[in-house]
Amino acid sequence: MRLLEVRDLEVTYAGGAAAVRGVDLTVDAGQKLGLAGESGCGKSTLALALLRLLPSGTRVSGEILLDGEDVLGMRWGRVRAVRWAGASIVFQGAMHSLNAVHRVGDQIAEPILLHRTATPTGARKKAGELLEHVGLPAARASAYPHELSGGQRQRVMIAMALACDPRLIIADEPTTALDVMIQAQILRLIEQLVADQDLGLIMISHDLAVLSDTCDRLAVMYAGRVVEEGPAQSVYENAHHPYARALSAAFPRIGDPASRFAPRGLPGDPPDPAALPSGCTFHPRCSVALDGCATEDQRLRDAGPVRRAACVHVGVPGSAGPGGRTGATSVGAGAEVGLGVEAAVETEADTASAADEAVGEPASEAVGDAVGEPAGDAVGDAVGEAVGEARSSTP
Ligand SMILES: Nc1ncnc2c1ncn2[C@@H]1O[C@H](COP(=O)(O)OP(=O)(O)OP(=O)(O)O)[C@@H](O)[C@H]1O
Ligand code: SF4
Ligand SMILES: [Mg+2]
């Protein structure tokens, strides 16, 4: 059984537009999944949805199966238990997630007291052990958050996330605010913890280079959807989707002469969820868009045995590769494309007919849980190469 299986997840904030639009994900024990994408593409929303930490009034539909148990159908008592013992989040921004007026040891001990049969002394002892586990002296348990450095606070957040022995850790930008040395330490720590304890990990970051170095698989999001997914190194080095390709090209590679011109950047802004472009939502920014891209939605399709991408150029035999180059290696049959479009239509029809379930927690509880409480292939490669060639020939 999968540790986490997410099927057709849709999230719409109260009074807003859909921030997550039909995401499917799986994570197995011991597997590290990286989630990347520009600011506002829905990464944190997805993470919060997994543990029902979204504000009251937010509509969530689809399925979130944690160890086979449907998170969206759980009673609140069960959700609270699962938040710590089933899965836990290392929140974006350690300073804001720790309570400034409580000692860090007490904050780590609190979920242990709430969710484990432990005495206050036992919980404090376990808090000290957890601090040592993440490379801090147990004595630092008596420190307040402001007495710790950014890297130390992030270690405290990781210790807290481990407090009730979860099976899955969701780390939202765990190293973004840290210098590169501390960033490397924290990443190695997370990798070691996942390997030692056979945990599942979802790591969120803008930084594709960090994710490709740390994770097994990589999912790239754009406008609330996963647009490419596959083995981390292949997606980073040879993305098929033009957006994933551009994101990857934004990071210079040491030793690669082409990187002398990096970062290349991407023109335009991420779309407003309330006014998404028609067809492929990336088409206004896509340098290899075809005429149909402005009207035809593109859903994920096979781009190799273990890769998927949502682009018309993926899986079309004899089509002009991105950049207009003809003769790019074809993937799959033309029928695949037809199927992909049909599948998209079906999925959207299903989604439209499905009654959205409001799963928002009362706001005060959500805030309490999130803040007040311790927060707590070779196939298709030619398509990618064609994108690269097109880009490198672009002045
Ligand atoms: N509480 C909220 N109420 C309404 N809309 C929200 C709320 N939180 C986020 N959004 C909107 O949902 C979309 C996705 O936001 P989200 O925070 O998930 O993006 P992100 O990918 O995590 O971005 P970043 O990389 O900047 O953290 C954005 O358009 C954002 O404005
Ligand atoms: S479907 Fe069209 S617009 Fe979308 S990424 Fe592919 S080529 Fe670009
Ligand atoms: Mg975020």
TrEMBL record:
It is a peripheral membrane protein. Residues 348-357, 365-395 have a biased composition (Low complexity). Pfam families: ABC_tran, oligo_HPY. GO terms for molecular function: ATP binding. Keywords: ATP-binding, Cell membrane, Membrane, Nucleotide-binding, Transport. InterPro entries: AAA+_ATPase, ABC_Ni/Peptide_Import, ABC_transporter-like_ATP-bd, ABC_transporter-like_CS, Oligopep_ABC_C, P-loop_NTPase. Residues 4-248 form the ABC transporter domain. Its main location: membrane. Residues 348-395 are annotated as: Disordered. It is found in: Cell membrane. The keyword Magnesium does not apply. Belongs to the ABC transporter superfamily. This is ABC transporter ATP-binding protein. It comes from Streptomyces ureilyticus.
